[in-house]
Amino acid sequence: MKMSFRWYGEGNDPIPLAYVRQIPGMEEVVWALHDKEAGEVWTEAEIKAEMAYIESQGLKATIVESLNIHEDIKLGLPTRDRYIKVYQESLKNLGKNGVKVVCYNFMPIFDWTRTEMFHPLEDGSTALFFGKGKIMAINPQELVEMVAEESQGLTLPGWEPERLKGIKALFQAYDGMTEERLRENFRYFIDAIIPTCEAFDIKMAIHPDDPPFSIFGLPRLVNNQANIDKLLAINPSPYNGLTFCTGSLGADLRNELVPMIKRYQERIHFMHVRNVRVASNGDFSEVSHRTADGTVDITGVMNALSQIDYQGYLRPDHGRHVFGEDKATCRPGYGLYDRGMGAMYLLGSWDMAQQLNQ
């Protein structure tokens, strides 16, 4: 198991890599070229420069998160072939430079959704929060404006201003989009890129839908076992793989995470591990990684990973905002301290499971 930490780049992330390196057991930085829009090529020169900087800080850079897919591909428009070729070129450039896994998603418009960025918890910390009633009471434009205001100028993955400036037109384009049509558009995309992935030894790891149910009428493809089965069966190549996010899937209490990990063990290339506390009305709050603080059995997840001898990447996912982190200094969900503590909880659970499973 390779412990990793998401980082948004020099000049874009207030957390220096020197601090990340001080987290015991930390090996890899999960990175992206965050200034690139969906549909733009990631050039070899740009990739080499970013990887060289990360490696100069004593960390590895073999996993990428957020090589974003252009909406024309998801919509199945005639222009998709041009954007697929661009995506193939970026994959080729990443593979040639030693990147082994790309985490991505196929969610229409929004990569993830929360209704509060700094929701107060009982202990005085704050965390990301999803209010099901609130999402039903606002429109997409109001949601975009709220996220922009609360993130205080720090860009969030999937919420880039240039991507969402035409939010009304995007929703018009998706009007009538069904789950079946979206799945066929995914099939077209994944079948086109897998030969490139196999040629350059770079695995795709699709991220589950977050939240794992429809919002604003948008279809979902990666939200439960039945739909994940369909998605992985579309192309049986091991390069068509999964990012298993315990927080995204765990927000639906019907998802049995431990059996699912064992079911998909050959196709899980990346683990996002975080805890959520799910209320009876469907609201959920992110909490610490500790099992007792939420509704996700984090220690059970880590034990399952030990039992399958998981060799892939793992990162502590979103953290609370603690120890004085606030809106002015902290990207929502991506502060230093709680993710560092989360890494320690996960490594401790892993080490104990490894001893028990010998």
CA radius of gyration is 19 Å
Main sheet overview? 8 strands, parallel, barrel
The CATH homologous superfamily: Divalent-metal-dependent TIM barrel enzymes
Query: Which word captures the global form?
Result: globular
Q: State the CATH architecture.
A: Alpha-Beta Barrel
Which structural category do the helix and sheet elements fall into?
A: alpha/beta
The proportion of strand residues reads 15-25%
Number of domains: 1
- The N- to C-terminal Cα distance equals 16 Å
What is this structure's SSE topology?
Layout: E1 2-6, H1 17-21, E2 28-31, H2 44-56, E3 60-65, H3 71-75, H4 80-96, E4 101-104, E5 116-120, E6 126-130, H5 132-137, H6 140-150, H7 161-164, H8 167-173, H9 179-200, E7 203-206, H10 225-234, E8 240-245, H11 246-250, H12 257-263, E9 268-273, E10 276-278, E11 284-286, H13 298-307, E12 313-316, H14 337-356
Parallel strand pairs: 1-2, 1-12, 2-3, 3-4, 4-7, 7-8, 8-9, 9-12
Antiparallel strand pairs: 5-6, 6-11, 10-11
What's the short version?
The chain has 358 residues and is an alpha/beta fold.
Tell me what the structure shows.
This protein is of the alpha/beta class. It has a single domain (2-356), classed as Divalent-metal-dependent TIM barrel enzymes (TIM Barrel). The protein is 40% helix and 15% strand. The chain has 14 helices and twelve strands. It has an eight-stranded parallel beta barrel. The protein has a four-stranded antiparallel β-sheet with strand order 5-6-11-10. Helix 4 runs parallel beside helix 9 and helix 13 crosses helix 14. The longest helix is centred in the middle third of the chain and has 22 residues, at 179-200.
